[in-house]
Amino acid sequence: MNVQLGLKENWPQFVLLVIVNMLVGGMVGLERTVVPLVGTAEFHIDSGIIIFSFIIAFGVVKACTNLVSGVLADRYTRKKVLILGWIIGLPVPFILAYGPSWNWIIAANILLGISQGFTWSMTVNMKIDLVGPKKRGFAMGLNEAAGYGAVGLTALLTGYLAAHYGLRPAPFYIGIFYTIAGFMLSIWVVKDTRAFAQLESTQVSKASEATPTPNLWWTFKEASFKNKNLRAVAQAGLINNLNDGMSWGVFPLLFITMSVGVEGVGWIKAVYPVVWGVGQIITGPLADKIGRKPLIVAGMFVQVLGHIVIGMKIFPPLQAGLVGSVFLGVGTAMVYPALLAAVSDAAHPNWRASALGVYRFWRDMGYAIGALMAGIVAHFFGLMMAVHIAGALTFLSGVVVWGSLKEDWTKQKH
Question: How many domains does the chain have?
């Protein structure tokens, strides 16, 4: 195989991986609108913590899987880990459609978390491998645009199906197509990209190349605590997904109580990830041009505006949900590819997959923390208070990045 770095040189595989990640994202979109409503309407659960338990299970498992996915990819190849992720995800849509109790829904989310940790991580790493250092922001923008665009469109579609055919099983049938198509493409068409990472590792400076490849514990400490810049990136990723975890569980229940119909909730749940996804087509390349820090800081503050619009009831409920979700989507689009690119800037290709796994561990732990926070706060103070607290934490996170992240570090070039 002729190994050359660059998007132009590898565009067929890059486009294929974009399509695969759309299928990966679609699997998460299955749950955005319908599953919280299944808990209240079908299983008659009235505890916010229990309702949000499926998000907590998903977030914790996905975060931990992210952590080991890079190590497995470096050891067994990216393609093998991608295929494993699809195999684990095959039962998920069937369990969501026909599971007889809430425990089955939680079990499906454990499998989904493992599947997402492997499949999404590999599409990230494989695109980074292919394009080389100059187009990382662009690559991450397209990757996340495909994934989260599919999340939003699937959330909208499941809301429509639920409104017309009931909460189960019809909305989950499309997940069967997603898993089979993703599995078959990964086996028969996707090619492994580890050779591209190995090529890049030979092109970095001799000083960096002489450094022994660190183990996962070293990488975890460096990316989580010791390096001031990486620490700032990790906390921003966590708070960003705390917003997503909170909205995942809170928004369907909140807007239903405000007399918004199921189809309207589907639109609210779709706008956030669709704007988030499509926006990254612009913000990914922008991160390569102006640096990572401006987008991260501004993006966190734009998300705060989304919380204000929803929490202050400036508009009628449906309009507030849609406008607030647009702000949340724009803000997230600004930070997502910039954060991934910033981590990739700092890591040697020999341990970049592991560093991205550590970052994505903290980022996706935000799902669980956001859902747990929302469940506890909603139980004692109501659903709207969870929105207010998430907004305050997002503001503080932006301030931390503003004060901690060094601009010259975020703009460094290999």
Answer: 1
